[in-house]
Design goal:
Blueprint (H helix, E strand, L loop, with lengths): L1 E5 L6 E5 L4 E3 L6 H11 L8 H21 L9 E3 L5 H9 L1 H6 L5 E7 L9 E3 H11 L5 H8 L9 E5 L5 E5 L4 E3 L3 E4 L14 E4 L2 E3 L5 E5 L2 E6 L1 H9 L4 E8 L6 H4 L2 H5 L1 H5 L10
Parallel strand pairs: 13-15
Antiparallel strand pairs: 1-2, 3-6, 4-5, 5-15, 7-8, 9-12, 10-11, 13-14
Length: 285
């Protein structure tokens, strides 16, 4: 979103980007990335003293070096437990859902109550406004059933989708949902097409579906560590709410090649850092 104001000395209209507070999840960035972030993404970042920023970064670097020693192996100590019996019926409904089946159809999967603080993370940040809205929807004292639906929803309201035609070859699809995405390209045959404007008989159509993901809280587990994959805003909101464990779908990986099927590119491109380093970035950070 952006606002607009009139330039005081001309008739020109200036577009001012809206600002949002964010929580940085991943630990210390490289020094050049840190300076770039302040210059280009922090309000009045150009006015900050770069020497002071470097001093600040250096102190943080010393702190993370201490953590690498004091908290070495913490990621391997994460706890996960079976779901309580009261949630077994909801678990059966979830695993029978077609979106669950289509999303988790390749690797072994379990659904457990997972400790949040020791989840390994790769996403860099979350927005505070969206996380706050999630907490409002969750309520102050959620029941186990409400917590399950919050983390692993089957029925949820979908944000409206808007379609704008730019020209004969270009369309723009937009939505306020953070789960909005393109799906896999597919081919449908003539008898599957119910309504299509055409100047002659159609034998088939190439389809690019636009819609939403399954939006389940999910992770990948390998060698005792669990790396959060989807649902970062919910995981952060739950932990900040004082909730220690949450129901989560876990895909089990035993080979590096399998990460390509389950993990984000950040994780699959550098598996040693996330699964072998002494102290990777954790959600508790």
């Amino acid at each position: 979103m952006a606002g607009k104001i009139k330039h005081p000395k001309s008739d020109a209209t200036l577009f001012v980007p809206a600002t949002e507070a964010i929580i940085k999840l991943v630990g210390q960035p490289g020094l050049s990335d840190y300076l770039h972030f302040h210059k280009h993404r922090v309000v009045s970042g150009d006015d900050l003293n770069p020497r002071k920023l470097v001093d600040e970064w250096r102190r943080a670097n010393d702190h993370y070096h201490q953590l690498e020693t004091a908290e070495a192996g913490m990621a391997d100590e994460i706890t996960s437990t079976v779901l309580p019996k009261s949630l077994h019926a909801m678990k059966r409904a979830l695993t029978a859902d077609r979106f669950f089946k289509e999303t988790f159809d390749t690797l072994p999967v379990t659904i457990k109550m997972v400790e949040l603080r020791k989840l390994v993370i790769s996403q860099s940040s979350v927005g505070t406004a969206f996380s706050a809205s999630l907490l409002d929807a969750l309520g102050k004292r959620p029941t186990p059933e409400k917590l399950f639906r919050f983390c692993l929803p089957l029925d949820r309201p979908l944000a409206p989708m808007r379609v704008q035609r730019i020209n004969d070859e270009k369309y723009v699809f937009t939505s306020d949902s953070t789960d909005f995405r393109a799906h896999n390209v597919d081919v449908i045959l003539a008898d599957q097409i119910r309504k299509l404007n055409s100047f002659g008989p159609v034998g088939a159509a190439l389809v690019l579906p636009i819609g939403y993901g399954s939006n389940f809280l999910s992770a990948v587990q390998s060698e005792g560590r669990i790396v959060l994959q989807n649902g970062y805003h919910r995981a952060y909101a739950l932990m900040s709410h004082g909730i220690t464990h949450a129901p989560m779908i876990i895909q089990h990986v035993t080979r590096t090649d399998e990460l390509q099927l389950a993990a984000t590119s950040d994780v699959s491109d550098d598996p040693v850092f996330y699964f072998r380093s002494a102290r990777p970035p954790l959600l508790k950070d």
